């Protein structure tokens, strides 16, 4: 049973030395418990925050203990009613080969309805983040212009497509490479740009000549500043993430134009997907329908081997991924 432990807390950008591969015993379940052999584990940007020893909405990872996070796997031993070996479950003890957990913390998933990876991406927390952020937090209305950053990533690529499916007038995405920009166009984005090609403010102004009504922020910093500059009267921003500053050791230099929220009567609203569970049923029904009808695509970047999980995580922060970054255990 291999596990990835946090060996030390990163300062700035994490390195391979912050992680350690540890051999541990395969656990056995007690009453009410199951043991799951993980098939896929998720690596997510929020994990960077949990590597710092600071108080936040989720507790920090402990040193010299396995990290955790979303995972899907097969039950291999069970002492819990309703769970049998062979069942596939979604749970929160990733970054390890074998997970021991209370059955109440596992959610059965149906591998015949969708590939199991989809429960960690389009049909899971990632998809719900896009759906809830765009439709509930930012309350996008048909005809509006939507801008999303980190648009070729897991959440962003779904935000843009859902916006189009829900009747957005114009959908614009930014991403970190020409290949990603091409992918966004293929996914149906009306405009896309590589944020390395010039100031985000200029690229966005060119892509959104009539301004932006809804901004879905995954990046913060200069992207948020550019969006504030481009936003129309009564514009709304769903503040989902600020990945540009997760490894920062200095406070961000932008946005410098926050005062514009007053004159433009903007709403900038932060949110956590965990608060939007009430949308889950509606979200699964609608998104599964779009998938079935071939109206929604989702990308996954799958890295092989649990020992490669730290490298996959570093790759996620660097932008190596198209769509959801996953590790096949
Ligand atoms: P992604 O799949 O989008 O992966 C992260 C991407 O961020 C990378 O691929 C990279 O793409 C981009 N990126 C990294 N650094 C920068 C930078 N300095 N400037 C611009 N882009 C950068 O991850 P997720 O879809 O899982 O998450 C997207 C965002 O949503 C994150 O900020 C995350 O924290 C947040 N989130 C928030 C949730 C909530 O409940 N509020 C829930 C889930 C996610 P590129 O090549 O384009 O640079």
UniProtKB/TrEMBL annotation:
It holds the Pfam family ADH_zinc_N. Residues 15-327 form the Enoyl reductase (ER) domain. One of its GO terms (molecular function) is oxidoreductase activity, acting on the CH-CH group of donors, NAD or NADP as acceptor. Keywords: Oxidoreductase. InterPro entries: ADH-like_C, ADH_N_2, ER, GroES-like_sf, MDR_fam, NAD(P)-bd_dom_sf. The keyword Ubl conjugation does not apply. This is NADP-dependent oxidoreductase. It comes from Micromonospora rosaria. The lineage of its organism: Bacteria, Bacillati, Actinomycetota, Actinomycetes, Micromonosporales.
């Amino acid at each position: 049973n291999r596990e990835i432990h946090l060996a030390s807390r990163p300062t700035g950008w994490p390195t391979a030395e912050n992680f350690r591969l540890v051999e541990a015993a395969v656990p056995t379940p007690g009453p009410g418990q199951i043991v799951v052999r993980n098939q896929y584990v998720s690596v997510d940007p929020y994990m960077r925050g949990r590597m710092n020893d600071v108080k936040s909405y989720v507790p920090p990872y402990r040193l010299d203990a396995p990290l955790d996070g979303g995972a899907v796997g097969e039950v291999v031993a069970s002492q819990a009613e309703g769970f049998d070996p062979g069942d596939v479950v979604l749970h929160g003890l990733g970054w390890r080969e074998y997970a021991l957990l209370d059955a109440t913390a596992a959610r059965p998933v149906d591998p015949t309805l969708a590939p199991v990876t989809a429960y960690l991406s389009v049909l899971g927390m990632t998809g719900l983040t896009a759906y809830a952020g765009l439709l509930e937090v930012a309350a996008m209305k048909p005809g509006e212009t939507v801008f999303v950053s980190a648009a070729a990533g897991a959440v962003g690529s779904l935000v843009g497509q859902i916006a189009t499916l829900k009747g957005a007038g114009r959908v614009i995405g930014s991403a970190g490479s020409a290949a990603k920009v091409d992918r966004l166009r293929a996914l149906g984005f009306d405009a896309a740009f590589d944020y390395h090609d010039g100031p985000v403010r200029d690229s966005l102004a060119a892509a959104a000549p009539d301004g932006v009504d809804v901004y879905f922020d995954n990046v913060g910093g200069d992207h948020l500043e550019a969006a504030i500059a481009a936003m129309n009267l009564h514009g709304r921003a769903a503040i989902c993430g600020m990945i540009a500053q997760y490894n920062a050791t200095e406070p961000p230099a932008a946005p410098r134009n926050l005062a514009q929220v007053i004159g433009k009567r903007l709403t900038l609203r932060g949110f956590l997907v965990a608060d939007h569970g009430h949308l889950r049923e509606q979200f699964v029904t609608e998104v599964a329908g779009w998938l079935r009808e071939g109206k929604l695509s989702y990308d996954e970047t799958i890295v092989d081997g649990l020992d490669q999980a730290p490298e996959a995580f570093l790759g996620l922060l660097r932008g190596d991924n198209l769509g959801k970054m996953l590790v096949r255990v």
